[in-house]
User: Fold this.
Amino acid sequence: MSERPLEELRSRRSILAAAAGAAAGAAVTLAAPTAALAVDTPVLANVDNATTAVTSITQGTADTGAFQANGDGTGFGVVGTTSGTLTAGVIGLAGDTTDSSYTAAADLDAGVYGYAAQSAISSGLYGEGPTGVYGYGDYGVYADGGSVGIFASAYPNGSAVHAHAGDGAPPAPTTNVALYATVTTSTQAGIYAKGRVIFPNRSGRVSFSAGQSSKSVTVTGMTSSNYAFATVQKSVSGLYVRAVVPASGKITIYLSKAVTSATYVAWLVLG
Assistant:
């Protein structure tokens, strides 16, 4: 058998190598579109980015924010909307969220839902400004607290709550008042209580022993300019409260005559 010329062997090798290269190139060409389809399009500016799953940003640097949005003019910094009726447009969570309605998948039905549980003074929503929180609706603010519905504090000496009924601007707030109620006209009521009204530190009853016709009662913060009232809690002919005299830190109740047996007298201080 005669040997093949060297040029023929080299030619056949070149043809085989070229064919292998073409096949590999075809494989890459076919695989490239498949790999591209598996990668989502990056978030783009100035367009609505349609997605099929949650898009999130996780900040790995301590003490650094994860996302910031800045609006210009009348534009909004962040707008959160939802087409659902039992969820929230914006949800803010801080601390351990185990007990939050969001984690429990409870019905929210809110434009903004906030939950925080880092400490005893954590707030689901914190508002600060000339008006910290403004609410408008059938109920401007609705509060349902496990122990306290609404807690308000005015530091150092303002009005914790100023409630006003009527049109027009309310009067200026006063100082050192927990609840300040004002009205526009005399036909409106500053305070309307359908139920018991309790004044634990400014009212009470005191017992007069047989033979007593006057008695002093300690009232913290009492001054001579306050108003004091008292009434006998027992029907005795000719027995009544003759006078209630306010003084610094106390009131003195005077009866029309000495009682013959233990008798209670109720008292109330205003102002």
